[in-house]
Write a structure and sequence with these properties.
This protein has 278 residues and is α+β, with helices and mostly antiparallel strands. It is 28% helix and 29% strand. It folds into two domains: 68 residues, no CATH class; 158 residues, Kinesin motor domain (Kinesin). The chain is globular. Bound molecules: adenosine-5'-triphosphate (ATP).
Length: 278
């Protein structure tokens, strides 16, 4: 079996991305403790314990070092997953890591300003979500079949689910009430779970999704931490459900349904150590 075939048959893949040093880290001459070897898919971590240097090497399904661009990660790791969603499978991509390691950068990037340019180009900083949205609509439009695309956007914070796409209410009090109201998580009777009352928005093009993302992201609750001022301590889940109408060679009508879950987890570090406050 070739490496590509092997990768296809594996249901869970773990990729590692290591961001470049920030300006602050460069200024303070922070030591480099992680070395990536993208080609060998290995990461070496250097630790000094009791004056002794200990190197440990970890292997991942893919490794993206500090010079890897948003586009490199997307082309090599995400395109095949989105293709599977378009084939009618359910797939999930989530970013896990300590605060400030680049989860939101990887998932959203310059998403909020991602409205495509004159030739439909995304900015080079655009992350996984805008790129996936673009790939989905580009493919659907090329296929020239009937389709529908629905999105949901929720936040999980302190064990409570909030709908980030809940419609704006006229009264400010009612709006605040609604935004704060947690939604119940229930079993759907088919072995899955559903969030009761979650707003599902039908979208017909990329820019509609981008404005929903912008609206939802603005609602995300954030708490400043000492590790990263922009830090978000909530998990967010952006889901895209696609229904595609197809005809079999026998002329029978088929509906293919695929779902892509895009998750940006809260920082995985110890909350006490990060200095975050309610
Ligand atoms: N690969 C990268 N290239 C350039 N800048 C990056 C990269 N990854 C992250 N950054 C920058 O590092 C900073 C922290 O990244 P980000 O906010 O995405 O972290 P995070 O893991 O989402 O943190 P939190 O858990 O607090 O939300 C941001 O200023 C971001 O622009």
């Amino acid at each position: 079996m070739s490496r590509v075939d092997k990768e296809k048959s594996v249901n869970v893949q773990v990729l590692l991305r290591c961001r470049p040093f920030s300006d602050d880290e460069l200024r303070s001459n922070a030591p480099q403790v992680v070395t990536c070897n993208d080609y060998q898919r290995e990461v070496a971590v250097t630790q000094t314990i009791a004056g002794k240097q200990i190197d440990r090497v970890f292997t991942f399904d893919k490794v993206f070092g500090p010079t890897a661009r948003q586009r490199d990660l997307y082309d090599q790791a995400i395109i095949p997953i989105v293709n599977e969603v378009l084939e009618g499978f359910n797939c999930t991509i989530f970013a896990y890591g300590q605060t400030g390691t680049g989860k939101t950068y990887t998932m959203e990037g310059e998403c909020r300003r991602a409205k495509s340019g004159p030739e439909g180009q995304l900015p080079s900083d655009a992350g996984v979500i805008p790129r996936a949205v673009k790939q989905i609509f580009d493919t659907l439009e090329r296929q020239n079949t009937e389709y529908s695309v629905k999105v949901t956007f929720l936040e999980l914070y302190n064990e409570e689910i909030t709908d980030l796409l809940a419609p704006e209410e006229i009264s400010k009090v009612a709006l605040e009430e609604r935004q704060k109201k947690p939604l119940p998580l229930m079993e759907d009777g088919k072995g899955g779970v559903l969030v009761r009352g979650l707003e599902e928005e039908i979208v017909t093009n990329c820019s509609e999704i981008f404005s929903l993302l912008e609206r939802g992201s603005a609602k995300r609750r954030t708490a400043e931490t000492l590790l990263n001022k922009q830090s978000s301590r909530s998990h967010s889940l952006f889901s895209i459900t696609i229904h595609i109408k197809e005809a079999t060679p026998e002329g029978e009508e088929l509906i293919k349904c695929g779902k892509l879950n895009l998750v940006d987890l809260a920082g995985s570090e110890n909350i006490c150590r990060s200095g975050a406050r309610e």
